[in-house]
Amino acid sequence: MLVSARDRRPNGILEPFKAYLNARFTEAQGQVSGTRLFLEIRERGYLGSRQVVRKHLAALRAGTAEPVRADIPSPRKITSWIMCPRDTLTDSQEERLLQVRLACPDITRACDLARAFADLVRHQRGHLLQQWIRQAEQDAPNPMSGFAGFLRRDLDAVTAGLTLPWSSGAVEGHVNRVKTLKRAMYGRVSFELLRTRILTQLTAATSYPPRTATYRGSRE
After folding, report:
1. What predicted TM-score, i.e. pTM, was given to this entire model?
2. At what angle do helices 142-153 and 129-139 cross, to 10 degrees?
3. In terms of CB atoms within 10 Å, which end of the chain has fewer, N or C?
4. Closest CA to 69 of 11, 20, 25, 6
């Protein structure tokens, strides 16, 4: 659905300047020197050699020059534009995303569904989850329709996560602490000692008040 990185890679150091060279060549009807164009694009940031410019102009005169590749944004950048709130995007980003949407109907549909799902998560609108799943399964691209199928398999838990204010964060924290102790003591002690240390750590974590930050400034 998104173009690969290999297809987006510029074909040489001259690639970002080919559009300008082609426009200048057409404007002058081919009556322009390579040295002059080389100096013009060097002022625009070109760091290559003069021979590369002359070779491209020769291909233009012979009619064998390759077409200029479009500046296609990376999949990661497109994804960030889709998932960010619309009011945080700049005008340029909105324009680039619109161009991508117009070029690929699958991305257009995926963008609409992804933004709708992000809205469900941000505002805890779990009561709209089944409606979103039906829309995704009906006409979404394959990756997103597959994601909707996974949500349907555990619909009650996902709906609760998008509706209720509670989470399993505290439990996950204890699980992470237990795993850390287990890795630190692996192969060194018996199970009974590991059990005792885990219980001691959990008791200490729930008994003592949380630490507060102290100011370490200069004393007066």
Report:
1. 0.52
2. 140
3. C
4. 11
Tokens of residue 153, six digits? 């398999």
Give the pair of three-digit tokens for residue 74. Answer: 């990376």
| Residues 190, 192, 195: CA angle, nearest 5 degrees | 115
Query: Which tens digit of pLDDT belongs to each residue from 106-143?
Result: 889 999 999 999 999 988 899 999 999 999 999 888 88
Dist. CA 57–CA 63, nearest whole Å: 10
Between CA 13 and CA 47 the distance in angstroms is: 8
* Residue 74 identity: S
Q: Are 149 and 134 in contact (CB under 8 A)?
A: no
Cβ neighbours for 182, distance < 8 A, ≥ 6 positions apart: 194
| Sign of the CA dihedral running 115, 121, 122, 126 | positive
